Amino acid sequence: MADERITGFLLVEVGQGDVDAAAAQLRTLDGVAFAHALLGPTDAIAYVEAPTWESFNRLLNEPIRALITSGTVKRVETCLAPKPRAGAFGGHPTSPPRGSAWIFVDVDMGEPEAVIRKLEEIDGVASAHGVIGVCDIIAYLECHDWAELRSILDNEIRTLPEVVRTDTRPILMRRTRGRRDAE
Question: For a FRET experiment, which of 22, 42, 123, 133 has its CA 20 to 30 Å from that of 78?
Fold first, then answer.
């Protein structure tokens, strides 16, 4: 039997709640590979994998719906990734470098596969997935800092002739700050 694995992204709106707490709760759910708190209209993104449609639906209709019912999450939009790319999330999907972001890409016309291949050739693009949802492609970039992220976006991604629009969602990482010495 062929691999029936179902993959996709959950775009999560938390509303007035704690985005870090919601992302942490998402990470505990069976089928959620990782979840990141974001800066932008989408508060968090989670990547999900399920072995069958039944288990994918169960994830959405039980634990995800429970997060909505409890008020932890306000709304969830599902973007299916019809051609999953196993293990294609760079080196740090659970603890990304400071300048990392998710980029939602709209392409002109046609299949996004050619654009996905071009994106994956760009240094800094850890993965790119064609999706059915709010955009055509969701790409994950791991950059050392915000200047590198901006350079890749401006000089390499947005210059691709097929790309008509990008929406950048930087990953928010809560890090412990060191004490400042009083002088």
Answer: 123
